[in-house]
From TrEMBL:
This is Periodic tryptophan protein 2 homolog. Residues 275-378 form the Small-subunit processome Utp12 domain. Transmembrane segments: none annotated. GO terms for cellular component: Pwp2p-containing subcomplex of 90S preribosome; small-subunit processome. Residues 388-421 are annotated as: Disordered.
Length: 421
């Protein structure tokens, strides 16, 4: 048992590189415990308010502490000195509950962060607590980088800064009045000291809260446990599940069953209804090359546009150039008139397709021109080597040329003499 705090301990965190435990308490201190040698307090860091959360940087060289006054302070655990702080009370932007007798601005003075987490590189810290917002701060610059609104569900309490005027009276909010559960008979007001009555009659409306935050090891996503559930925010678009016309029979198993039965068009339709990128690519690339025009002709019009957009995106990155070019050609040839009628709506898709094709054309045309010039040079060189002459033949040809030149000169001199005569 480690004793020393004079108030409740609100959070604990082990150092990732040393055998040191950091504990933060309501007694306005952070204590660093040596867990290997003495099990005693190594350092005590004084805070300006009650401590609520503490976390180590991944390299163990910095400590972040959230306090009740809405601040996040940064400490060097080696020297026990404060390196910076961020005032996040104005970033919380709390709302007004229906039973609050004060405004949201006054209520925000009692709000604070209750969970902290460093990013994988240690340059940013994630903070969340008694608010619908989660904030990311840059540690070095000590400024807000981005703020995420985790919920817009108005069934939760304190979601809006101002209460609905229709629920306000001259005496205050209607939520402060207990209307009871009877049929218009009202409710009996309990007298002071009375222990009997219906203790189960109550009205409860949950308030949005962030109880925990964690970054992924790669730093490309983070998760938050909130009143509404577990939320995951990511930079990877593949984690987003956005189905189209989803039904109970639209599953990966049913799609692969259609592939085994060689029902290509139904498999493509089901894959685009499920809208999983990897599954759509798997289905398209299993369609035989010679069956592509047949499959394109049997697709519904609504899936033609979706397939054309997927082909345009895949053509830019895939190495199956001829395969996806065949898909694009078949779709444009067989459904060209319908696509032309909706050219304004699908203009981004057509531009993406043209961009992909033009990029491949530019890359391949340079390579093909270079190869053609090399082939021509090799052919010309081979012809010259095939008619290579010996040195004796070259000497005989040079002598014959000299004789011809002397004869021509003698003939020319005779003609000039005749002209002079």
């Amino acid at each position: 048992v480690l004793g020393g705090h004079e108030g409740p301990v609100s959070c604990l965190c082990f150092s990732p590189v040393h055998s040191i435990l950091a504990s933060v308490s309501w007694d306005r201190t952070v204590r660093l415990w040596d867990m290997l040698n003495s099990w005693q307090v190594k350092e005590t860091l004084p805070l300006t308010s009650d401590g609520l959360a503490v976390t180590y940087r991944p390299d163990g060289q910095e400590l972040a502490v959230a306090t009740l006054n809405g601040e996040v302070s940064f400490w060097n655990p080696q020297t026990a000195t404060q390196t910076g702080s961020v005032s996040g009370r104005h970033d919380l932007e709390t709302g007004r509950k229906e039973t609050d007798k004060i405004t949201a601005k006054q209520s925000a003075k009692g709000k604070s962060f209750t969970s902290l987490c460093y990013s994988a590189d240690g340059e940013s810290v994630l903070a969340g607590g008694q608010s619908k917002f989660v904030c990311i701060y840059n540690v070095k610059e000590q400024m807000l980088m981005k703020k995420f609104e985790i919920s817009c569900n108005l069934s939760f309490d304190a979601m809006e800064e101002f209460l609905d005027r229709r629920k306000m009276t001259e005496f205050g909010s209607l939520a402060l009045v207990d209307e009871g559960a009877g049929d218009g008979e009202g409710v009996n007001i309990s007298l002071p000291g009375v222990r009997k009555g219906d203790m189960s009659s109550r009205h409860f409306k949950p308030e949005i809260r962030v109880s925990s935050l964690r970054f992924s090891p790669t730093g490309r996503s983070w998760a938050a446990t909130t009143t509404e559930g577990l939320l995951v925010y990511s930079l990877d678009g593949s984690l987003v599940f956005d189905p189209y016309d989803l039904d109970m029979d639209v599953t990966p198993a049913s799609i692969r069953k259609q592939l085994r039965l060689q029902e290509w068009a139904p498999a493509i339709v089901l894959a685009f209804r499920l809208n999983e990128k990897a599954l759509k690519q798997e289905v398209l690339e299993k369609v035989p090359h010679e069956q592509i025009p047949v499959v394109c002709s049997s697709l519904p019009e609504i899936y033609v546009e979706k397939l054309l957009g997927f082909v345009a995106a895949s053509l830019e990155k895939s190495g199956h150039l001829q395969f996806y070019m065949t898909w694009a050609q078949s779709l444009l040839m067989l459904h060209g008139q319908n696509l032309k009628n909706r050219s304004g709506a699908i203009l981004p898709t057509l531009q993406a397709l043209q961009k992909s094709i033009q990029r491949h054309f530019d890359n391949l045309s340079k390579l093909c021109d270079f190869n053609m010039y090399n082939i021509r040079y090799a052919v010309a060189l081979s012809k010259q080597r095939g008619v290579k002459r010996t040195a004796k033949e070259e000497e005989e040809e040079e002598e014959e040329e000299d004789e011809e030149m002397s004869e021509n000169m003698s003939v020319a001199s005779i003609e000039e003499a005749e002209l002079m005569l």
